[in-house]
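Hey, resending since the last one bounced:
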Amino acid sequence: MSSRIEVITTTETQAEARRIAQALVESRLAACVQIRGPIESTYRWKGRIETAQEWQCVVKTRRELFSRVEQAIASQHSYEVPEILAVQIIEASQPYAAWLDEQVGQ
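The structure tokens again:
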């Protein structure tokens, strides 16, 4: 089983997504953060259906760093309840997996 994961979060602005990405890579909690957007999200919040434009961050890291990644995202995030989800990477090419492992947690 792979110890590599992608952590997904969404932000209100591209600038916020960039700040979070920069902080995660600088602190070696992520090998890479891809920023996608804008995307449109529809969700229920405080009893109402809302629609918002957001930016999605996809964080490449390792499972054992999840709690630190979660804390780093939450500490910089503007949302009251930010989305912070981890998805296991089932397979990765050997060169990419080695590069990812080299970049995080040192």
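The two ends are 22 Å apart (CA to CA).

Sorry for the duplicate.
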